[in-house]
Structures are given as structure tokens and as C-alpha cells.
UniProtKB/TrEMBL annotation:
Reaction(s) this enzyme catalyzes, per UniProt: hydrogencarbonate + pyruvate + ATP = oxaloacetate + ADP + phosphate + H(+)
Modified residues (N6-biotinyllysine): K1117
Amino acids binding ATP: K144, E225, H260
Binding, Mn(2+): D545, K714, H744, H746
InterPro entries the UniProt entry points to: Aldolase_TIM, ATP-grasp, BC-like_N, Biotin_carboxylation_dom, Biotin_COase_C, Biotin_lipoyl, Carboxylase_cons_dom, CPAse_ATP-bd
Protein name: Pyruvate carboxylase
Domain Lipoyl-binding stretches: 1076-1151
GO cellular component: cytoplasm
GO molecular function: ATP binding; metal ion binding; pyruvate carboxylase activity
Protein role: Catalyzes a 2-step reaction, involving the ATP-dependent carboxylation of the covalently attached biotin in the first step and the transfer of the carboxyl group to pyruvate in the second.
Length: 1152
């Protein structure tokens, strides 16, 4: 009698009363227990994970450190105080544990209780689905005598044997007298070779076989039959659903055995006559249908040397060797078991006899901890060293194959199953060679695992190689075949130049700069020091805004680092070096494939003495969206830790609540708060009623009260005229005599130097400038010009014109490397019409590029005019990222729809406005200083909600630990907090950057010309991948296009030949190729194998739930239903019905 706790008894009885006579039920499992251990448990867990089902393990006291316990989602102890095997045979405890933890179904694995019908019945009685045949069929097929009788009834030939199990040696002796020896004894209630003996000395053999069966299966009853001399062991894999449908998945040859346990299994059986194969398969199906078989099972036969075959038994469970069948048919047997147990039909699983076809050949070898020198006696102990052989077509199934694993003496000696697969027919394979290897003296003289390790020493190592060299070759091969990975904006190519780096004396100490004061005394003391300094200080924008304005932000860390030591030694008098933030953050990842944090850290090491300055978009940090406040705080904290000093905090609408978020974050991080007022309009024009001098004074007053360390004027369009500069800076200096004033401008009109000189004279402490060869037009005014003009005056900068000249020479040459992004291709000079259209410097060149690329170069004046109109339509707003983009989007929209400012308002009710404009009108960007334009706002919004305060104010904090864990799972590496912050700012950009870097390695180490356009044939380059470690890479040749649309690219790497195949995307356009599913992105659903799309179960826009069918794939004459792994919306269906696809091709894109 079995007893459970009262609650569980009631639950079970209620279930029985409800389902006593019900038809097969259909359900979806949420939690499945595996009532087993070791390798098979982990195999089932993998299937459960792939189906998004929670996996539950049980473990004995002796297995508390076993791997299967830790691989499961949940694990529970059973059999406390029981012997090791008995713990896994304790039906009462297993069922009780399952009930306590809401288990939907139990998978028995193989061995232990897998063929115990009473266990299957106990599961059903408890309301738990048993994943396997019905108890009745198990009882019949598990009883080898009853199975023999069923075979006879079905017309299947059997080996002579006893009609019932026997329990005494005398019965066995009597059988031997009748049929002669040898005979074979087999456990009546289990398999796997345990309790099985070939018998010549009947009495002794019976005793040992009975004992082993008793220990393994809890019942020592034996079955005896005539031993067939030198047979082949052929078994047939079956699958049946709960509705009478049943198919075979072809046969396996398990003839290579030791102690009647299979050591090598092969699928399909080699050299088996086709007629014999067909008869065996038909008999197996006929027998299974005769008994009403369900789920997975195996029918086993012996085939003698004449081709006669005999049924021997049915294994009513999954087999150890199921892996070879999976490899040749492409059917996941464990997943099929689970789906069938859920109530699905074979047809729903797209499994029909016609659709299952063997493809290639597969061999499984069982590596065990047994000593061949001692008649394969099991061994136990700790594995000190383990290296496994792997390669293409190799599958490993294990649970204890790792260094440090302790092999228990209590259980099966299986260490790892090695399954190989090859795309060849069974008649022409390396199978004979493998079989020969297994019988060689070298194999017999050493343990199995040691043998395999010795034969495959270099295939696999536990410490993954960075493989940087091969990844860089892959990148260069990609560029060679398909062109630049960074789109080039013009037809110009990078020049063959080596920019001249001015020499500095080796060992020369770094001069003291302002950063020393900041580090020693803090931001407030730093600001006081700046204010006390005589003369005018300079911020060098060459490292950021200059190239953002002139070269599309494409300057790489490689070239910045080359000149950094010279800057550190030659310009310690600089107020700051602006080198981070703004557009550089996302562009570095998106187009330059380098980490912005690594850039900052690299430059910090090279320039320890000059303060670094970045551009911070208030509540948006360096992004373009609203973020939770803790993201802004964390960003600033990490930036300071990575080497940032001064944060120029601005807001595109001068919206003070947004500014305060950034300012407070910088203050908490210990940085210098440079609060910036974005300048627009003209304070010297008395006719203008917006953005007056008083407006700027009032705004400055708020920022000073908010504890700004430095006050900045950010003239992003270069519209601060000399007279306006004198008035504004003079008024600010008069009102705020103690705070440093810093002025930033662009030289679009050509008056930048004059304006900065006026600022210096009016009391500015710092002005921005770019080195001469990177100045002018939409960049900053010339550093050399400002320095020369102030030389010898009270505002002398203290900078050396000779050193500036050397600095300029470097950038004059380096700029040629970035010719593809050169703004001078379209912009030949400055233009004073900026005072009218007020387009910011960085945006001006982008708009001009767009106009020329669209063939509208001669209409650029019209584009600029419409920009002015769009700005007025929006209420004459401040224009800097992202508000400048909003104006630009509306301007292009007006041009496309041939609208004027007046008709825009008239037709606004019906126009599909750009999203950026709608977001602005809702208040997501902030509140403009003079309000939103009406009635345009109301017409644009059409009832959409309005945000009256700061958009990010009520956003929940980001859980950085959770995000980090998810990202590490997605990208498969340990991430820094800085990486998490990059993701927080730009999620999709970061993910793509990680995938690119994982594929192509440290491309930031390549010289710039080679990074953009690759190597020339026979060109050689040295690439320093880390200090003192260089790769010598030479491009040798590019091969012709092959039938797959690939070209083979040949290199010398450190003097050794390397080659790779690269898909030629242009030449292979007619060859069907498709985008690939993104690794680590669960909503990116790809084809699991080559095949044809037969049917789609969803359409774009559909809402889907986990495990909902998405499409049907016909692969290797097998139909496979691909389910959704997540809940979400079908964003895009990337292929069409009937499309032939390759493994990994993106089929469905789901947005979570």
C-alpha cells in the first residue's frame, strides 16, 4: 500500500473521478519532471528548455553534486536514507515530490523506472501525465514473455524461449536441456544489458543475472531463450500518438556490444539487404499497431548470417542510442515524446511515414569509465584532466565529462556518448575504419576515454580562444569581396598617407595641466582656478565636434591615439579637450565598430594631464530618447570613472527641468558641471522679441542657482555675431563675476574668429577652437588664428603657434584618410545665410550631403529656405540635436508635400506628420520656452495625450543587474557596467555592435585606410592587437565565384597561408540568399535546417504566444513545425511560401 500526504491523496482522487473514462487529453506542459539522472536527464532538460517548459530534476543523496541536478530549472531530493539505486526506484516519493511541486508530466528517461508499468499507472493515478506508452502496453511489452506472445499473434518470427519469466536456476537448466546451449538469460523487467548473460554454466550464470536484475530493476525475474550464434542486432525506432497513428524512423545496427550492452550504434544499418530491411520495418510497425503502442519505443531483432531475423523484445522507452536516429532523420525524439504526451497527433507534428527519410549516416560510441585491461571492470574516482574531441558533425551527450567530475561507483559507467554524422550513403562511409579502430590493440590496452583524448588532442579546449587573427582575416575578406562595412558617403577613397606624428622626447615627463588641480582639489576649486587665470583659455574640439561637423563623426580612435601623446606634451595649457559625447557615442559603435568607453579609457591613458570634456544632452545623456533618471546618474558615474572630467550639459529647448537632471547627475558623479545655454536668434537685433538678452540672463541665473561650476554659451549654428557676443558675454560677466564663462560656436558664416575675440575681450574665460586644418566652415574657428590674434594682449592663450602648426600638419594628412566623408566635396566655403536659416553646423553638412545624393544639390538653397519656414511653423524653437532633427524632418516633409507655412496649418488635420514632429508636439522632447504653436499642435496631435512636465520624470528605474544578466546570456560573454550603459542608450546599436565584434574581432586595431577599404593585392600590414603582439597580414589573392556565390580569399598570416570563403553579395544576387537570424535574439526566428517553406501559420501583425506554430518547414523529406519561443507581435515575415532556405535563414521576426 502506498500513502501520500492527505492533500495530495484528495487531489489524486478528484482527478481520477473527473477523468475516469475521458478520451485522450490535450494540454500544454508547463513543468515536467525527469525521473532519472545523468546524461539522459540533461538530454530531456535540453528539449524542455527548447520548448520553453520548466525542467525539474530529482536526485539521490549520492547525486547531490551531479550535473543533472544543476542543469534543471528546479531540483528536489528523493530517497533520503535509501541505497543509491533505490532512491530512483522510490515511486511513492517521486510521485509525492511531483505533486508538491505542480508537475504536469514525468519523463522516465531510460533505465530505472522507465519500463515499470506500475510507475506509469502511479503517475496517471496522481493526475500526472506519464511520457511514454500506456501502463497496459508497458506491462505487456515490458514483460518479455507477453511481448513474445504478442509478436507471435502479430505473425512476427521469434526466437525459441520460455513462455513466462523464471525465478530459479532449475527452470533455466530444464530449458537448456530441451534446446541446448548456449542460451541467454535476460531481465524480465528491464533492459540496457543488466541482468543479461550468455549461459554455458547455467547455475552460476543464473545467480549472477538474477542478482544484477534485482539491483537494477527491483525484480530479479529472468527470461530465457535460445542464443543465436553470431547474429547482428537490428532495432527499429517507433513513434506513435494517442490516436492510433504510428510510424517507424528506420533502423539502427547495435551489433558491437560488450557484456550485451551496446558500445557502438549505427544508423541506418550498413550493408543490410534492402528486402530484409523492409521486412523488419514492416514487422516492427505491425507488432506495435497490434498492441496499440503509443509514444516512443524500439522493436529489437536478431539477424543471423543467412538473413533470417527474429523478434527479441520491445523497449517501451527512449533508447540510449536514440541520438543516431535523430541525426539521420532530423527528428527530435524527445521533443516528439513531449508533444505526443501533450496530446498532439503525428500529423500535427508533421510526422508521417512518407515525410521521414534517412539522410546520411551516424555512429554513436559510448565512452565509459571502464578498464579494458581488467575485463572492462567499471572504474570510479575523480577526473583530473578531460579534453573532448569535437568538430563538424560531432555531437556529445554527457553529464559528467569534465575535469573535476567525480564518477560514482553506484551508477552506470557511461561518461559521454559521442555521435558523429556524415552526409554520405551507408555504402561509402568511414564506418569500416571506425570499427577497425575500435578493435585495435591500442584501444584494448587503454581506457576508452583516454584513447579518444589521445586521438583528438587539438580539437577542443575548455578555455575558448579569442581567435582574433582569424576574425580579422574574416573582416578583411568581407571588405575585399563586398566592399566597406562602413558606408562611404562620397566616391573619394582614403588616401595612401601615413600622417606625420611630431616627435616627443622618450621618457619626458608629462607637463602639469588643469586636470591636476581638478583631481587634487575638486570641481569647485577647478572653477576658481579657471576664473583666476589670466588670458583666454582654449578648448580644443578637434577630437569631437570638428570631425563631427566636417567628417561625419567618422574619425577613429586609432588616429586620435596616434597624436594624443603629442597633444598631452604640447598643450597642457588647454582648458579642456572635447573628445566624447554627442554623436560620437553611437557612431563609434554603429559605423566604426569600436566601443566608445574604450575610446575614452584609451585616450585618458595617453593624455593624463588635460581635462576631458563631453557633450551631455541633459536628461537624454548621449542618446536621443528619454531615460529613467537612474540611467543618467549611472552614465555620469561611469563616465567619470572612465576618465571624463567636464560635462557640457545642454537641452535642445533650454528646458530647465531637463537640464537639472543632467547637472545633478554630473554633480553626484564628481564631474565639472558646465551648464550650457543653447543660443539662437540675435540679441543685437532690437526688433526680435524672442530670445532676447534678458531671456539669456534669466536662464543663466537659474543655472547658476542650480550649482553650475561653469556657465557655457552653446552657439551650435554659429549665429553669434561679434556685436551680439560683446553684448551677451559682457552682460553675463557683469551679472555673474565669479563663475567661469565658456563660449562655443561654429564658423559656418566665417565670422567665428571675430566673435570669439569679442567674447574674450568681453570677459569669457574659455572659447572653443579646432586645430587649423580641422577648422572653418561648419567646424569651430581656427585655433591658430585665435591664438595669433590674442598673442601679446591681456588675453594671450599661452599656446605655441609652432606646436599648433605641427598639430595641424598631422590632421591635414590624417584628414585625407577620411576623404569618403569629407564635407568639402559639397561645401566649398562658409555661407552667411546661416544667420537666416540657423541650421546647426553638424546638421548643415548632413543636409547638404542628402541633397546632393538625391540629385537636389542645385536646390539646396530651397532646402535651407524651407528649414527656416519649418522652424517658424514650430514656433521658432532652439535648434540643436534632437530639436534640429525635428525641424529638418518637418522641412523635408513640407518639400515633399509642396507645403508652405500657411498651407501646413490649413491641411494639418489630414497630413501624416513625421513621428519626430508628433513626439515633439506631445511634449516628449520638453517644453519650448515660448510654448507650442497653436492651432498646429492640436491639429497634429488629434487627441493624443500631452505631456505637461518632464517626459522622463515618472519612468521606472532601470534594473541594471537584470539587464546585465540578460545581455550576458544573449551575447555569451561577461560584460562590464559600461557595456550595459551602451545598451541602455542604444539597445539595437549595441546588440549589432556586439554581434559584429564577435564575428570580426578587434577591427579598431586596423589602420584607417585598411579598415575602410581593405588591403590591396600583395599588400602587407602589421596589426598590433595588444602591446608587443603584432600580426603580419598580407592579402594574396581573391578567387573566382563558385556555384554557391562565394569567393575564396587567400592571406598570409604571420607567414602561414590562410584562406576563407566569402559570400559575394553582389555577384550572387541571382542565387537565393537571405538574411540570417540574429544569434541571441529570441524573436529572430530562423530555419533550423535547410528546407522549403511549406506554409505560414501567422501573418504580419499577428499576436503570438510561446509555442504557437509559426511556419512549416519541409526538410530532408520531413515536415517540421516551427513554434514561437516568445510572446509578441509578428513584425515581419521575411520569406514567402515555397522559398528554399538555408539553415539559419531569417524567416519570422517577432517583436516582444
Amino acid at each position: 500500500m502506498r500513502f501520500f500526504c492527505t492533500t495530495h491523496v484528495i487531489k489524486r482522487l478528484c482527478f481520477q473521478s473527473r477523468h475516469a473514462h475521458s478520451a485522450p487529453k490535450v494540454q500544454e506542459f508547463k513543468k515536467v519532471m525527469v525521473a532519472n539522472r545523468g546524461e539522459i536527464s540533461i538530454r530531456v532538460f535540453r528539449a524542455l528548455t527548447e520548448l520553453n517548459i520548466t525542467s525539474v530534476a530529482i536526485y539521490s543523496e549520492q547525486d547531490k553534486h551531479s550535473m543533472h541536478r544543476f542543469k534543471a530549472d528546479e531540483a528536489y531530493l528523493v530517497g533520503k536514507g535509501l541505497p543509491p539505486v533505490a532512491a530512483y526506484l522510490a515511486i511513492d516519493q517521486i510521485i509525492d515530490t511531483a505533486l508538491k511541486h505542480n508537475i504536469d508530466a514525468i519523463h522516465p528517461g531510460y533505465g530505472f523506472l522507465s519500463e515499470r508499468s506500475d510507475f506509469a499507472q502511479a503517475c496517471i493515478d496522481a493526475g500526472i501525465t506519464f511520457i511514454g506508452p500506456s501502463p497496459e502496453v508497458m506491462a505487456r511489452m515490458g514483460d518479455k514473455v507477453a511481448a513474445r506472445q504478442a509478436a507471435i499473434e502479430a505473425g512476427v518470427q521469434v526466437v525459441p524461449g520460455t513462455a513466462t519469466p523464471i525465478t530459479s536456476a532449475e527452470e533455466a537448466i530444464e530449458f537448456a536441456k530441451q534446446y541446448g546451449t548456449p542460451i541467454i538469460l535476460k531481465a524480465a523487467y528491464g533492459g540496457g544489458g543488466r541482468g543479461m548473460r550468455r549461459v554455458d554454466n547455467v547455475a552460476e550464470a543464473f545467480r549472477r543475472a538474477f542478482s544484477e536484475a534485482q539491483a537494477a530493476f527491483g525484480d530479479g525475474s529472468l527470461f530465457v531463450e535460445k542464443f543465436v550464434e553470431r547474429p547482428r542486432h537490428i532495432e527499429v525506432q517507433l513513434l506513435g500518438d494517442n490516436y492510433g497513428n504510428l510510424i517507424h524512423l528506420y533502423e539502427r545496427d547495435c551489433s558491437v556490444q560488450r557484456r550485451h550492452q551496446k558500445v557502438v550504434e549505427i544508423a541506418p544499418a550498413p550493408a543490410l539487404p534492402e528486402g530484409v530491411r523492409k521486412s523488419i520495418l514492416d514487422d516492427a510497425v505491425r507488432l506495435a499497431k497490434h498492441v496499440g503502442y503509443q509514444n516512443a519505443g524500439t522493436v529489437e531483432f536478431l539477424v543471423d548470417q543467412k538473413g533470417n531475423y527474429y523478434f527479441i523484445e520491445v523497449n517501451a522507452r527512449l533508447q540510449v542510442e536514440h541520438t543516431v536516429t535523430e541525426e539521420v532523420t532530423g527528428v527530435d525524439l524527445v521533443q516528439a515524446q513531449l508533444r505526443i504526451a501533450e496530446g498532439k497527433t503525428l500529423s500535427e507534428l508533421k510526422l508521417t511515414q512518407d515525410s521521414v527519410f534517412p539522410h546520411g549516416s551516424s555512429i554513436q560510441c559510448r565512452v565509459t569509465t571502464e578498464d579494458p585491461a581488467r575485463a572492462f571492470q567499471p572504474d570510479s574516482g575523480r577526473i583530473e584532466v578531460f579534453r573532448s574531441g569535437e568538430g563538424m558533425g560531432i555531437r556529445l551527450d554527457s553529464a559528467s565529462a569534465f575535469a573535476g567530475s567525480v564518477i560514482s561507483p553506484f551508477y552506470d559507467s557511461l561518461l559521454v556518448k559521442v555521435t558523429s554524422f556524415g552526409h554520405h550513403s551507408s555504402e561509402n562511409t568511414n564506418i569500416p575504419f571506425l570499427l577497425n579502430v575500435l578493435t585495435q590493440p591500442a584501444f584494448l590496452e587503454a581506457s576508452v576515454d583516454t584513447y579518444f583524448i589521445d586521438e583528438h588532442p587539438n580539437l577542443f579546449v575548455f578555455r575558448p580562444s579569442q581567435n582574433r587573427a582569424q576574425k580579422l582575416l574574416s573582416y578583411l575578406g568581407e571588405v575585399q569581396v563586398n566592399g566597406p562595412t562602413t558606408p562611404l558617403a562620397t566616391d573619394l577613397k582614403p588616401a595612401y598617407v601615413d600622417p606625420p606624428v611630431p616627435a616627443i622626447h622618450a621618457g619626458e615627463s608629462t607637463p602639469i595641466g588643469l586636470r591636476d588641480i581638478l583631481l587634487k582639489e575638486g570641481p569647485e576649486a577647478f572653477a576658481r582656478s579657471v576664473r583666476r587665470k589670466p588670458g583666454c583659455l582654449i578648448t580644443d574640439t578637434t577630437f569631437r565636434d570638428a570631425h563631427q561637423s566636417l567628417l561625419a563623426t567618422r574619425v577613429r580612435t586609432y588616429d586620435l591615439a596616434q597624436i594624443s601623446p603629442f597633444v598631452s606634451h604640447s598643450f597642457p595649457q588647454l582648458y579642456s579637450l572635447e573628445n566624447w559625447g554627442g554623436a560620437t557615442f553611437d557612431v563609434s559603435m554603429r559605423f566604426l565598430h569600436e566601443c566608445p568607453w574604450e575610446r575614452l579609457e584609451t585616450l585618458r591613458k595617453l593624455i593624463p594631464n588635460i581635462p576631458f570634456q563631453c557633450l551631455l544632452r541633459g536628461a537624454n545623456a548621449v542618446g536621443y530618447s528619454n531615460y529613467p533618471d537612474n540611467v543618467i546618474d549611472k552614465f555620469c558615474e561611469l563616465a567619470v570613472k572612465s576618465g571624463m572630467d567636464i560635462f557640457r550639459v545642454f537641452d535642445c529647448l533650454n528646458y530647465v527641468p531637463n537640464l537639472l537632471v543632467g547637472m545633478e547627475a554630473v554633480g553626484k558623479a564628481g564631474g565639472v558641471i558646465e551648464a550650457a545655454i543653447s543660443y539662437t536668434g540675435d540679441v543685437s537685433d532690437k526688433t526680435r522679441t524672442q530670445y532676447t538678452l534678458q531671456y539669456y540672463l534669466d536662464l543663466a541665473n537659474e543655472l547658476v542657482k542650480a550649482q553650475a561650476h561653469v556657465l557655457a554659451i552653446k552657439d551650435m549654428a554659429g549665429v553669434l555675431k561679434p556685436e551680439a557676443a560683446r553684448m551677451l558675454i559682457g552682460a553675463l560677466r557683469d551679472k555673474f563675476p565669479d563663475i567661469p564663462i565658456h563660449v562655443h560656436t561654429h564658423d559656418t558664416a566665417g565670422a567665428g574668429v571675430a566673435s570669439m575675440l569679442e567674447c574674450a575681450k568681453a570677459g569669457a574665460d574659455v572659447v572653443d577652437a579646432a586645430v587649423d586644418s580641422m577648422s572653418g566652415m561648419t567646424s569651430q574657428p581656427s585655433m591658430g588664428a585665435i591664438v595669433a590674434c590674442l598673442q601679446g594682449t591681456p588675453h594671450d592663450t599661452g599656446l605655441s603657434l609652432d606646436e599648433i602648426s605641427k598639430y595641424s600638419a598631422y590632421w591635414e594628412s590624417a584628414r585625407l584618410l577620411y576623404a569618403p566623408f569629407e564635407c568639402a566635396v559639397t561645401m566649398k566655403s562658409g555661407n552667411a545665410d546661416v544667420y537666416r536659416h540657423e541650421i546647426p553646423g553638424g546638421q548643415y553638412t548632413n543636409l547638404q550631403f542628402q541633397a546632393f545624393s538625391l540629385g537636389l544639390g542645385n536646390q539646396f538653397d530651397e532646402v535651407k529656405r524651407m528649414y527656416h519656414e519649418a522652424n517658424l511653423a514650430l514656433g521658432d524653437i532652439i535648434k540643436v540635436t534632437p530639436s534640429s532633427k525635428i525641424v529638418g524632418d518637418l522641412a523635408q516633409f513640407m518639400v515633399q508635400n509642396r507645403l508652405t507655412r500657411e498651407t501646413l496649418v490649413d491641411r494639418a488635420d489630414d497630413l501624416p506628420f513625421p513621428k519626430s514632429v508628433v513626439d515633439y508636439m506631445q511634449g516628449y522632447v520638453g517644453q519650448p520656452p515660448y510654448g507650442f504653436p497653436e492651432p498646429l499642435r492640436t491639429k497634429v496631435l488629434r487627441g493624443k495625450p500631452k505631456i505637461e512636465g518632464r517626459a522622463g520624470e515618472n519612468m521606472p528605474p532601470m534594473d541594471f543587474d537584470k539587464v546585465k544578466k540578460e545581455l550576458e546570456e544573449k551575447h555569451g560573454r561577461t560584460l562590464r557596467d559600461q557595456d550595459v550603459m551602451s545598451y541602455a542608450m542604444f539597445p539595437s546599436v549595441f546588440d549589432e555592435f556586439e554581434r559584429f565584434r564577435s564575428m570580426y574581432g578587434p577591427v579598431d586595431k586596423l589602420p584607417t585606410r585598411i579598415f575602410f577599404t581593405g588591403l590591396d593585392i600583395a599588400e602587407e600590414v602589421d596589426v598590433e592587437i595588444e602591446r608587443g603582439k603584432k600580426l603580419a597580414i598580407q592579402l594574396l589573392a581573391e578567387g573566382k565565384l563558385n556555384e554557391k556565390g562565394e569567393r575564396e580569399v587567400f592571406f598570409y598570416l604571420n607567414g602561414q597561408m590562410r584562406s576563407m570563403f566569402v559570400q559575394d553579395k553582389e555577384a550572387s544576387k541571382e542565387i537565393v540568399t537571405h538574411p540570417k537570424a540574429l544569434l541571441g535574439v529570441r524573436g529572430s526566428i530562423g530555419a533550423p535546417m535547410p528546407g522549403e517553406i511549406l506554409e505560414f501559420k501567422v501573418k504580419e501583425g499577428d499576436k503570438v504566444v510561446p509555442k504557437q506554430p509559426l511556419f512549416v518547414l519541409s526538410a530532408m523529406k520531413m515536415e517540421m513545425v516551427i513554434d514561437s519561443p516568445i510572446a509578441g507581435t509578428v513584425k515581419k515575415i521575411c520569406l514567402s511560401k515555397g522559398t528554399k532556405c538555408a539553415a539559419g535563414d531569417l524567416v519570422v521576426d517577432i517583436e516582444p
